[in-house]
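Cross-posted from the bioinformatics board.
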Amino acid sequence: PTPPYVKWAESLHSLLDDQEGIHLFRMFLRQEACGDVLDFWFACSGFRKLEAAEGNEEKKVKLAKAIYKKYILDNSGIVSRQIKPATKSFIRDCVAKLHVDPAMFDQAQTEIQAAMEENTYPVFLKSDIYLEYT
Amino acid sequence: IDSEDDLLQECISSAMPKKK
């Protein structure tokens, strides 16, 4: 079978679908002082999963607020800087109105994913961390 | 703040792939 680290180079999704690949990518991102980008990407996926579950309305609102405060509120943050102003405004309005929309972080996650695919992911595949591992 | 960070960590972990 194809070794996992070869699959990781096929696409960002292949990398993020493997615990070892995530661990290595996270180490690399932390070296580059942008580990929050990956955590935010997973937080958006986790939020969608929680949203799909029945009940927990209070927890969903609390989580939406926590994600917003941690990653988006501070415009100088590594995540917030890579999300379009209109996308941030939409999320801010949802949080302010306590109107927790299941898809409220989808656009932001798409923009962060595009930024990873364009920048950090290709650089990771050329990084010492990845090359030493392979 | 702790509870918010805990909630975030739980959310991030829930989205991670299971060990193959």
